[in-house]
Amino acid sequence: MSQVLVVTSGKGGVGKTTSTAALGAALAHDGAKVVVIDFDVGLRNLDLVLGAERRVVFDLINVINGVARLSQALIRDKRLDNLHLLPASQTRDKDALTEEGVAKVIEELRTKFDWIICDSPAGIERGATLAMRYADAAIIVTNPEVSSVRDSDRIIGLLDSKTAKAERGERIDKHVLITRYHSSRAARGETLSIDDVLEILSTPLLGIIPESEEVLRASNVGSPVTLNNPLSAPARAYFDAARRLKGEQVPMLVPAEIRSIFDKLFARKAA
Amino acid sequence: MSLLHFFRQRSAPIARERLQILLAHERIACRHQDLLGILREEILAVIARHVSFEPDKVQIKMDRGKSVSTLAVDIEIPNLDRLSDAVAGMVG
Questions:
Q1: If you ran DSSP here, which 8-state letter would residue B55 be given?
Q2: In chain A, which residue's Cα lies nearest the Cα of B11?
Q3: pLDDT tens-digit readout, B21-80
Q4: Which residues of A touch B7 (CB under 8 A)?
């Protein structure tokens, strides 16, 4: 049984693309067949985060328009054989993304993959609503900060009313993924705590990804953080989240950065 | 860390409270945008099957509380005895 996931947030810059790449790679690393789809037509970035930007030939809209077959547009990851990318178009008009077209592509992908992860664009416009349209479950990426939580609440409202599953009267599974979490700031009462966010959104928690320079380093080199440095704190948090997606019970810990004495002595901030 | 900083109020509780108030309002506005309209139409249709009333004299309000929400429907119906008088008058 394949699962269609949407990674969404409403607000931009909270870590949707990073999380899509990291979770996709974590699931593929454990042997599942995974495809990640970029729905951000005009502003694609999933290709860049995965280091596949120079291999894009055809894209999602080419497939919808019948210009290319799905197999021609799918890009196989160089590190993991069972991880694939379906890129977004960079230049074309975003109205080319149609509901019927997306439905057809997702149906075809369901026959080939275990996990279909849709990376939503920011906002609540067409691209975002189509990314969530056929999802079985949603990951709402949220930073512990007022504007991100507000937008997540809005997105939860859309997931409960505008998805195909919701329209059939079924419940869409929703999970909150808290990213860019500073445990020390939360302890000092400077940012919303995990409990605050969960209580306000009343949605179960999938994972807590600590703020880390490893995330930036991974995107710099074009590799999901779960592959680039699997033992780093954010990578371990993404691996745990991926196991929870598969239904495993994993204790909810906030992984801390493992730092050597050398690191501490020469502590530098990422530029 | 200055003494002033030490005594400054933690800002997270303020963020939390502001969000809770804001979202309580927005949830009514966004999620139940159509709900009130649908409820209004369906409630009116049921009542119209049994009594006649002026559609203008109907008020529907919804209040969302912390644990329960309330739906208030206020319909002005002409008194039944006046109704029967009118019917009697028409027959007579």
A1: G
A2: A190
A3: 998 888 877 655 566 677 777 788 888 888 887 777 778 777 767 777 777 888 887 776
A4: none
Q: How do residues A208-260 score in pLDDT, each as one tens digit?
A: 999 999 999 999 999 999 999 999 999 999 999 999 999 999 999 876 655 55
Give chain B's length.
92
How far is residue A108's CA from residue A267's CA, in Å, rounded to a whole number? 49
Query: Would you say the C-alpha torsion A115, A119, A124, A129 has a positive or negative sign?
Result: negative
- For CA atoms A117, A14, A148, A92, the dihedral sign is negative
Residue with tokens 């599953």: A165
Q: From residue B81, how far is each of A189, B49, B57 by CA, in Å?
A: 65, 18, 19
Q: Looking at residue A269, what is its pLDDT?
A: 46
Whether the Cβ atoms of residue A72 and residue A66 lie closer than 8 Å to each other: no
ipTM of this complex = 0.77
Min Cα–Cα distance to chain A from B1, Å = 13
pLDDT given at position A270:
43
Q: Does A187 touch chain B (CB under 8 A)?
A: no
With an 8 Å Cβ cutoff, are B30 and A154 in contact? yes
Contact residues for A195 (Cβ-Cβ < 8 A; gap 6+):
none
Residue with tokens 């409960």: A160
The string of DSSP letters for A66-115 reads: TSS-HHHH-EE-SS-TTEEEEPPPSSS-GGG--HHHHHHHHHHHHTT-SE
Measured CA to CA in angstroms, residue B42 lies from B37, B52, B73 at distances of 9, 15, 12
Query: Chain B partners of A162 at a C-beta cutoff of 8 Å?
Result: none
d(CA A130, CA A159) in angstroms, rounded, equals: 11
List of long-range contacts for B49-53, beta carbons under 8 Å, 24+ apart: B51/B77, B51/B83, B52/B78, B53/B77, B53/B78
